Amino acid sequence: MFAALQEAGMIDMDNTSYLKKLLADVGADASIEDVERYEKDYQEYVSKIKLLRGQHDPYFMGREKEINVALKFLGKDDDKIKCLYIHGMTGLGKTKLAQQISAYYGTEYGLDATGMRMVRLHKVTSTLEMGVIILRELGMRISLNEYDEDILFETLCTRKQRTLLLMDNADDLLCPTSQAADNFKNQLSALLDCKNKWLKLIVTCRFPIDFVHLTQKDSFLPISVQPLDELDSIKLLRKASRPPDHVSPLERIAKRYLDDQYAKELAVVCGNCPKMLRAVASRLRNGIKPSRLLETLSHPDKAHVALRTPPEEDEGYFSMGDDSNYEKDVLPKMGEMINDLSQELREVLIRLSVFPSTFSDRDVAHVLDRSEADVADYYLDDLKNRWGMLEGEPDYFEQEQGPKWYSMHALVRTSCLRECYGDQNSKNIFHDALQRFSTACRTSWTRSPDSPAPTLRRGF
Ligand SMILES: Nc1ncnc2c1ncn2[C@@H]1O[C@H](COP(=O)(O)OP(=O)(O)O)[C@@H](O)[C@H]1O
Ligand SMILES: [Mg+2]
């Protein structure tokens, strides 16, 4: 009835007073409660749509390439369900990118609220829970007891309306220690074999997926989110640090201090990570000098103070995004990620944080005091492929048997160094690695001219 009244333009979310008056006149109090429920449901529904569309974010920068690739992929209506899998470290902008892609896709196909759904998977640890959330999001009232995987498949595979399902933050389902990870990947793989051109999925998660039954499918596309380009980072810093319009012209001038050099250096210490850049920009906007911010950020134990979102800015003009109410700040979250690692991998990561830039498996063998073969297979590739904590570098020298190169993102390094301030054990591990590192550097610099080329050369 409400849908019919709404369609006829007789009621709307904020226009139910006449209907309520009529119901009150005839003494239908129970129905008034129904109207109030309608208002509440509709308000939630509208806010979800705003959320899915990422609202209008004047500070959104870059990502043109990713958006184009994604839209081309999602727009191809062959007969299979499609899944775009967006992965990358916390704070790099996975959710934002997914929202932006959804917004473009939704506009292109004229999707309304029922065609664009956001499924929040934060803290969801079983595929059962996930299935129920998805079904409820699609309008089915179902309890955990009633749930059955077949219902989910039936619903998704037979959906006849064009639908974009944004499954955000599948970290807890897909972390390497999750019991549900295999189940999730198998279910997704089976789903992508179903014929239904109307359904498109976007999954965001910090972990990459290396499951061949997914990665070999044309209907599965992984996108790795990297830090912003340097120019986009600087643009973001400048734009987001500009004082709001109501600030007086004199104050504005007083606050225009972000010269090129500071902007560049701040972008570097933020690792071009949009979440950190926005936090830094908000500090600048509040009048904190770039030199002071740089100084604070270069102390890993103090960095979190500079990067915490000021409480008064959680809402409104400088919102950190709609997900700020359930996403924690980036450095503590990164710390949690590091603490999730096995003890051994954690120690390896702390040792690796002695490298300020790229390093090879040979360099790592020095600081870990292990064989080169062990190092690449058991530690570095694990940290790279399963945990996304390291990045692989392209082989600049195209040697067949040459060393493999890696680098650590500035945020991971900062988080590791922060650990070393608070925890004596981590501090010892770091200092031991530092000593091995400097010994290795000294040895490589004092080699005779005919000895093999040192590998400890780049970035040191
Ligand atoms: N390309 C971008 N341009 C500007 N701000 C961005 C961009 N990507 C992300 N952000 C902002 O950075 C913060 C973190 O982004 P989010 O998508 O939540 O990261 P993730 O999901 O990877 O943890 C949010 O406040 C978001 O608005
Ligand atoms: Mg996210």
Keywords for this structure?
globular; disordered C terminus; Rossmann fold; 3-stranded antiparallel beta sheet; 460 residues; 8% strand; binds adenosine-5'-diphosphate; alpha/beta; 5-stranded parallel beta sheet; 22 helices; NB-ARC; 52% helix; binds magnesium ion
Describe this structure in words.
By secondary structure, the chain is of the alpha/beta class. The chain folds into 4 domains: 51 residues, no CATH class; 161 residues, Rossmann fold, CATH 3.40.50.300; 91 residues, no CATH class; 114 residues, Orthogonal Bundle (Arc Repressor Mutant, subunit A), CATH 1.10.10. Helix content is 52%, strand content 8%. It is built from 22 helices and 8 strands. The longest helix is centred in the first third of the chain and has 24 residues. The chain starts with a helix and ends in a 15-residue tail after the last helix. The C terminus is likely disordered. Bound molecules: adenosine-5'-diphosphate (ADP) and magnesium ion. The site of adenosine-5'-diphosphate has 20 residues, from helix 5 and helix 14.
Query: In CATH's first tier, which class of the largest domain applies?
Result: Alpha Beta
Shape: globular
Spell out which ligands are present.
adenosine-5'-diphosphate, magnesium ion
Please name the CATH architecture of the largest domain.
3-Layer(aba) Sandwich
User: In terms of structural class, how would the helical and strand content be classed?
Assistant: alpha/beta
Average per-residue pLDDT, rounded, comes to 84
| Major sheet | 5 strands, parallel
What count of domains describes the coordinates? Answer: 4
How many whole angstroms does the radius of gyration measure? Answer: 26 Å
**Helix content bin:** 40-55%
